[in-house]
Here is the input.
Amino acid sequence: MPSGERIVTLLGDSLTAGYGLRPAESLPRQLARRLEGVTPPIRIIGAGISGDTTADGLRRVDRDVPDHTRLCVLALGANDMMQLVPADLVRTNLLAIIDRLQRRGISVLVCGMRAPPWFGAYAWAFDAVYPEVARASGTPLMPFLMEGVALHPAYVLPDRIHPNALGVGRMADALAPHVRAALDALAAPASR
Here is the structure.
């Protein structure tokens, strides 16, 4: 590991694994390109598995997020939403993942998800989970990882769910400043 290199691990599902895309088009690779030239340097590690829920992420967090990770970008919940997993269980799983990471000295950036409005009452409950989790755990929040991408025909694959390379590029553009801000906050001296 180069001197001073900061490791950022993306713990997620198909959105971070690059479902349907070439490796170079995946979120970890596109995010890494947006963060090139930053000092100290940042290395992005992809730990996304297509189909994973928050429960799956909780099962593998200790195995798949390396100890030398400075910041874990937590991007799980889309599959929970598709399966209508109760919002309380999604919240419990996310908080447990964050707790595991924080106990290891790893900081977390939470990436929110949103349910489509036609999910009715479930959408209200699900959408509230991410701000609540960020508040309860004291972690920064990117409100919606797929902002401006979800349900937009120009930015999704033919399945109308997963982002295409252009959509992932927009996600990387939006995520990069959140990653930089979270890392800068870690480097800032603690205020008294």
Summary: The first strand starts at residue 6 and ends at 12. The first helix runs from residue 14 to 17. The chain has a mean pLDDT of 95.
